[in-house]
Amino acid sequence: KVENNLAEGTLPGEVYVSEPLGANTILTLKTGNAIWKVKLEGLHQFQVGQNIWVRMPTEALHFFTKDTKQRINLEANYERS
Among 40, 48, 53, 43, which Cα is nearest to 17's? Predict the structure, then answer.
């Protein structure tokens, strides 16, 4: 879910690219030096440079290493600590 204002439990991002893709919208966002993607159901219009806040369920998050592009298994890392 996208918010236009800061709300509890949201992550900020600046719209870098907004791509309509079939029945969905793919956003590429920038936060500091990080670039990340969000898939939204439905078609939405955003302007490049627009600041938004995204609320995401943690089970829908996926992280990848910068060097190898391999997915990081957070559950395995959490169980080891």
Answer: 48
